[in-house]
């Protein structure tokens, strides 16, 4: 349901920034698109308007005043509203003021005490992930602040519950599990009314996650039940980047479903007709995007779990029309690139050294070519010509090496991205086996996006170890049953020297007393900080340069000791620190590209106080879930 509580910022909290989503901003006078050392400010001067005088590092919610919506009555209604409800967390003065004295137990508990009690109950032996998901949904239904506080405090344990993999199981049964409306549903019955419908949501919105439910976490077509994905993703935006929960909106585009089970289910809550296709589908998506732009022109729209055939065309059609981002395409590519930068940092190389890397990519579908295309963009960003950058890639599919002699199928997924890579490869025979390609090319990075289990054979892995002291091996296909190799196979073949990262979870492996860390990429490293930085800087477009900046920022949180051990991604428990780094890097790049839209304020912060000031600004703009004094609207 739509929500419209209002907040009054306390004086200290309003200095220099606002609420997790966009009070701050600027319009840049800088135009450089590269990030050279000479661009960094050399002299740090205190800003005239008091930015550097701030003493707290995060905008704690306790610095705000929760002003209740005028339609909310005193008394029991306060306790039944999850936005205002604190359970046993009210002071006596609040109970008196809100008309609830006697309606709650007399003892007051702090939010930390409440968290400890709920976590103890939730983690009792025998509780399944789905039980924990249901418990979290019930908590969100009755006390939203406590819900987000629990996630922030236990992000490593709860991220797999409120999002993948557990939310996938929840989405399969979402119609049966449905208890309380969240977000907005746009169906084929609403075509022509999207603009008006947007005004049914009363709050201002900074971030929208939208899905059509056609490819939910690899589970296929779940129709309107994909709403669970949009809700879960935005919970991670709030927990990971401090986006204000009042400024997020989960959406689902119900264009029908081709899932026979849902079409025949008496309980399915979506439209029971086959999916729209072609022109009708495109016009449906276009109407939604335009309605968002009309209602909230500065909101970030994240497209989530659209089918492969629709995802890229939608992104290309709207990327320059509205502030948008596709996590499955761009988020995955940024995560992989961050892993490459982390691996390079592990062997003492700077991000600019990506121009010296050679990639063998196994898998020429939309996933593999999306990653290859972004890696290519990073090489160009760091100085290679497009032509020379293409020559650093060897793309192999089930037919072998793809060269200029290959006749490409026009309808094949990823083929448009593949053409330039194929055209640049004329030095080796068409169809050359993966084993021979690795032996001939001696790649620094072996990457898999093929879903072909075990295709990285012992011979191939040994060749990688013979060619390089620290070969980079990245079997990205998931689940584990589809991984190109296991961590144990890579470790044994390379004597534990490989820098390893997979798309599926593996345990670290010890070989001859040497530990090979089994890293795993996660898009959670990327999208919260990317969204926060984009909103704060007021950009109207997410450029490849901003995405590259996000990728470069992620490994920078690692210590030298961690890098020496082969760790290339930081721990998820540090997600807010990661998001601060990513947001600041994104803001800096937006300034360099002239994309800032906040009347020069962000540029002034950066040019006078440097990147640390942007990091401080990002952190101070984060929402932190804490109980705030609650009063009625005057």
Concise synopsis of the structure shown:
By secondary structure, the protein is of the alpha/beta class. 41% of the residues lie in helices and 11% in strands. Helix 14 crosses helix 22 (544-553) and helix 24 (575-592) packs across helix 26 (611-620).
Task: Explain what this protein looks like in three dimensions.
The chain is of the alpha/beta class and 634 residues long. 41% of the residues lie in helices and 11% in strands. Helix 10 links the parallel strand 5 (207-211) and strand 6.
Write the layout of secondary structure elements.
Layout (H helix, E strand, L loop, with lengths): L5 E4 L49 E2 L3 E5 L7 H5 L11 H7 L12 H12 L6 H14 L1 H10 L1 H8 L3 H7 L1 H4 L6 E4 L6 H5 L8 E5 L15 H15 L6 E7 L5 H4 L14 H18 L4 E4 L4 H11 L5 E3 H20 L12 E4 L3 H16 L4 H5 L2 E5 L2 E2 L13 H9 L10 H8 L3 E4 L9 H10 L4 E4 L11 H8 L4 E4 L6 E3 L2 E3 L1 E3 L6 H11 L6 H10 L6 H5 L10 H18 L8 H9 L1 H10 L2 E2 L5 E3 L2
Parallel strand pairs: 2-18, 3-19, 4-6, 5-6, 5-7, 7-8, 9-10, 9-12, 12-13, 13-14, 14-17
Antiparallel strand pairs: 1-3, 10-11, 15-16
Helix pairs in contact: 3-5, 4-5, 5-6, 5-10, 7-10, 10-21, 14-15, 14-22, 18-19, 19-20, 21-24, 22-24, 24-26, 25-26
């Amino acid at each position: 349901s739509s929500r419209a509580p209002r907040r009054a910022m306390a004086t200290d909290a309003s200095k220099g920034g606002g609420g997790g989503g966009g009070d701050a901003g600027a319009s840049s006078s800088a135009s450089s698109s590269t990030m050279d050392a000479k661009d960094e400010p050399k002299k740090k001067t205190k800003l005239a308007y008091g930015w550097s005088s701030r003493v707290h590092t995060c905008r704690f919610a306790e610095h705000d005043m929760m002003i209740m919506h005028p339609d909310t009555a005193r008394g029991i209604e306060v306790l039944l509203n999850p936005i205002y409800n604190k359970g046993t967390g009210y002071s006596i003065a609040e109970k008196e003021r809100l008309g609830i004295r006697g309606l709650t137990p007399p003892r007051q508990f702090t939010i930390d005490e409440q968290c400890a009690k709920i976590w103890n109950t939730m983690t009792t032996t025998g509780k399944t992930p789905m039980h924990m998901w249901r418990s979290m949904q019930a908590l969100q239904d009755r006390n939203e602040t406590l819900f987000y506080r629990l996630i922030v405090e236990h992000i490593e344990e709860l991220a797999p519950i409120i999002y993948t993999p557990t939310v996938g199981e929840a989405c399969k049964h979402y119609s049966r599990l449905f208890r309380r409306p969240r977000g907005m549903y746009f169906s084929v019955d609403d075509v022509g009314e999207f603009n008006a419908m947007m005004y049914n949501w009363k709050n201002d919105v900074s971030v929208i996650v939208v899905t059509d439910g056609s490819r939910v976490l690899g589970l296929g077509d779940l129709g309107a039940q994909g709403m669970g994905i949009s809700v879960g993703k935005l919970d991670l935006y709030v927990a990971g980047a401090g986006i204000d929960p009042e400024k997020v909106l989960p959406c689902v585009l119900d264009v029908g479903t081709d899932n026979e089970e849902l079409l025949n289910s008496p309980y399915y809550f979506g439209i029971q007709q086959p999916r729209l296709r072609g022109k009708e589908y495109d016009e449906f998506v276009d109407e939604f995007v335009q309605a968002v732009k009309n209602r909230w022109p500065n909101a970030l729209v994240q497209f989530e779990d659209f089918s492969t055939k629709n995802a890229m065309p939608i992104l290309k059609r709207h990327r320059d029309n509205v502030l948008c981002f596709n996590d499955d395409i761009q988020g995955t590519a940024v995560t992989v690139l961050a892993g490459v930068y982390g691996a390079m940092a592990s062997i003492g190389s700077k991000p600019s050294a990506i121009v010296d890397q050679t990639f063998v990519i196994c898998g020429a579908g939309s996933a593999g070519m999306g990653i290859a295309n972004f890696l290519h963009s990073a090489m160009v960003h760091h100085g290679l010509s497009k032509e020379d950058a293409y020559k650093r890639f060897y793309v192999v599919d089930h037919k072998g090496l793809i060269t200029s002699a290959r006749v490409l199928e026009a309808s094949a997924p990823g083929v448009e991205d593949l053409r330039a890579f194929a055209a640049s490869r004329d030095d080796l025979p068409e169809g050359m086996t993966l084993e021979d390609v690795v032996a001939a090319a001696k790649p620094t990075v072996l990457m898999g996006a093929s879903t072909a289990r075990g295709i990285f054979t012992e011979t191939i892995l040994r060749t990688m170890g013979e060619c390089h002291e620290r070969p980079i091996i990245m079997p990205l296909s998931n689940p584990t049953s589809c991984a190109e190799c296991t961590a144990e196979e890579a470790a044994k073949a390379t004597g534990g020297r490989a820098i390893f990262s997979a798309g599926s979870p593996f345990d670290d492996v010890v070989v001859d007393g040497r530990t090979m860390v089994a890293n795993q990429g996660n898009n959670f490293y990327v999208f919260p900080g990317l969204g926060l930085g984009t909103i704060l800087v007021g950009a109207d477009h997410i450029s490849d340069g901003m995405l590259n900046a996000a990728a470069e920022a992620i490994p920078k949180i690692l210590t030298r000791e961690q890098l020496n051990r082969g760790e290339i991604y930081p721990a998820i428990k540090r997600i807010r620190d990661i998001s601060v780094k990513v947001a600041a890097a994104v803001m800096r790049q937006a300034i360099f590209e002239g994309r800032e839209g906040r009347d020069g304020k962000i540029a002034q912060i950066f040019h006078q106080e440097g990147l640390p000031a942007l990091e401080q600004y990002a952190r101070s703009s984060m929402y932190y879930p804490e109980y705030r004094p609650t009063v009625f609207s005057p």
